[in-house]
Amino acid sequence: MHAFPKSDPILSCAETADLESRLLGADEGLQWAAMRRAGTGVAEAVLTDFAEIGDFPAGGRVLVLAGKGNNGGDALIAAEAILGRHPAARASVVFAQGERNLRPPARRAWLQLAHAAGERVAALDPAAASGSYDICLDGVYGYSFRPPLDRPAARILAWANRLPVRLRAAVDLPSGLADRDAFKADFTYATGVLKSPVLACANAGRLRYIDLGFFDGTAGPGADSALDRVLLPGVLSSLGSLRPAHSDKRTYGHLLLVGGSRDYPGAILMAVLAALRSGAGLVTACVPASLAPAFAARAPEAMWVGWPETAEGGLALGRGEALLARLKAADAVVVGPGLGRNKESLSLAAAIVRGSKAPVLVDADALQPEIIDAARARLVLTPHAGEFARIAGGADLRAYVAATGATVILKGPVTRIGEGARKKGGEAPVFHSLFGGPVLARGGSGDLLAGLTGGLLAQTPDDRLLAACRGAVWHGMAADRLARARGQVAVTAAQLLEYLPEALRELGPGPDVAGSCPM
After folding, report:
1. pTM summary value
2. Residue 429 structural domain
3. 7: which of 115, 136, 229, 398 fits an S-S bond (Cβ 3.0–4.6 Å)?
């Protein structure tokens, strides 16, 4: 039985409170150290994410919405760290429950910020506020919040939501959660524990997880058996390590990709280009014969096999013996990118699923119930929400993987990976990847994920879940780096390939930030 991919449990608010009570107790030193790690971690992640819209201005303006408790302290420490990195920046602080009501840790954070920043920080009365801000840090309420919002806090949050702000960052949870006047975050930075309510919160924006090391030791009962887990960058750590000196191309697996058509020629090419970056030792691609010469010129590292075509330019069903020989030589197979919905091409996909003894990743138009039913337990499926609805017939992800035994990468703003339970009678865990973002909302990004994951699957054919989790995280981390380097808009999906090496090489020591990369 394989160990879980590197991840931390996602807990309810009550479970989080119990965990923090056991880890920190009433020890003010431990509590302050955790608050410092949380605040500085939020600051680093916010500035990293800010790069998607440009450089943080030298004289940038930061607005802090500070509650009286720990979240207020986290936000104040984050502001201190941001101003420490940018000596000309300024901060304004709104005390949502009044400065005199600050609890000791939050008061300590405020006094430290005031001492460090001097005249560059000041308390602000919203009634007298004007202008715009580069960053707004919401630290009004934390996970102990119980709706509804009180009126003073609701007025402050509604005012903050109307302000011109370039990046709105919630600490831990957006204050007010689903309330009408709740803080509307662009990013939410969960500190120490990713709390389950934030996954379904429309006001949370993009999610980030700041790992404070709470799960490095004995976290207590239930931490290892949590059914929802957040993936960490460390899931890729072995890929960034030195490879054995005595190895060759056969050591790292042989991937076979089957797809492409006259109508959709680019998809299979993009999948192959990603597979070539995955670390797989050998990559073979079966494509319509008319496409093979041009593709071979574009990516000569792959072995291109020209396959007979249908009249419509899709893959024909013939050459059964040749297909079986190709399947026998493969450690993993990808079928579907650019395949189209020609009946004969779909029959070929079904034959591949039935005939392959190696695990098969099924993507795009090959995601059809009749194809999947041919060999459900050996498959990795990569649907988006619409495709999943087509194959799952209304079942949710956990129920579907439990019933079929398939490994599923369900693509979305938070990509979720599920696999059938690893012990009889157990429920299936679901892993959440917070990496990536709107930069992936363009044609071709799914083809890259299929090829990348297929290449990883060829390297670990006996651990489909590990390959799936690695594929989702690596793909998302490269997308984050692309957006920070070039923005979200004027880019192409293929540019993501150039950031795959960076995502591996920048995996250094220190706490993991899931959904963000070190600066």
Report:
1. 0.95
2. 246-514
3. 229
